[in-house]
């Protein structure tokens, strides 16, 4: 299985020629989205779904499978496979499990949005914009910046549910200085919980 980081929260998983793209958002969706076999959306925020890019891809590739929670499906004029917590399905020989229901709180003056995470093959988690109470994970695509998350939240989650490895994502609003600070802190946290931090940059891949 090949995992490729794209911009911000977008991650691509390729398994035996089957490409799954998760959260191709407006900060930079993959240019070749149209050639993917499936797209998984965690929630409707524009940094996680580039609506024009997705609609263009579906128009060019009607066989593209799109999975998303109901709030996304209600806004898009395309065929969406609606998912919710507890759902399972298979893509390219990989079992996908849907976790969670709510976005982490940004500020209390804003409504709490719908959000789901996707557990891939029982071992790789993309949580969207939330922290899910899931232990014994091989790899977590870990949100590290945003209005709803701070490093203390990350530390507490890693201590409670230490994965074997994690990749920092959701950092598209951070400049180069902030990325450097992130990397130092994430390395410290990885050492604390006995995990391996993988500092993948957009465009970089790993095999797992």
UniProtKB/TrEMBL annotation:
The molecular function terms of the Gene Ontology recorded here are: hydrolase activity
Q: Where are the transmembrane segments?
A: none
Superkingdom is Bacteria
Q: Which InterPro entries match?
A: Metallo-B-lactamas, RibonucZ/Hydroxyglut_hydro, UPF0173_UPF0282_UlaG_hydrolase
Q: Which Gene3D superfamilies match?
A: Ribonuclease Z/Hydroxyacylglutathione hydrolase-like
Q: Which UniProt keywords apply?
A: Hydrolase
Domain named Metallo-beta-lactamase: residues: 7-170
An example of a Pfam family matching this protein is Lactamase_B_3
Under what name is this protein listed?
A: Metal-dependent hydrolase
Q: Which organism is it from?
A: Corynebacterium occultum
């Amino acid at each position: 299985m090949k995992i490729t980081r794209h911009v911000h929260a977008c991650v691509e998983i390729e398994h035996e020629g089957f490409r799954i793209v998760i959260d191709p958002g407006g900060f930079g969706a993959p240019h070749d989205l149209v050639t993917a076999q499936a797209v998984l959306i965690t929630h409707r925020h524009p940094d996680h779904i580039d609506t024009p890019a997705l609609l263009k891809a579906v128009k060019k590739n009607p066989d593209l499978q799109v999975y998303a929670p109901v709030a996304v499906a209600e806004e898009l004029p395309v065929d969406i496979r609606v998912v919710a917590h507890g759902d399972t399905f298979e893509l390219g020989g990989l079992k996908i499990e849907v976790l969670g229901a709510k976005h982490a709180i940004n500020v209390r003056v804003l409504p709490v949005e719908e959000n789901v995470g996707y557990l891939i093959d029982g071992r790789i988690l993309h949580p969207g914009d939330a922290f899910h109470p899931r232990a014994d994970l091989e790899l977590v695509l870990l949100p590290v910046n945003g209005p709803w998350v701070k490093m203390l939240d990350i530390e507490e989650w890693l201590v409670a549910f230490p994965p074997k490895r994690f990749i920092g994502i959701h950092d598209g609003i951070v400049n180069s200085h902030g990325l450097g600070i992130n990397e130092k802190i994430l390395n410290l946290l990885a050492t604390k919980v006995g995990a391996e931090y993988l500092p993948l940059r957009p465009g970089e891949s790993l095999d797992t």
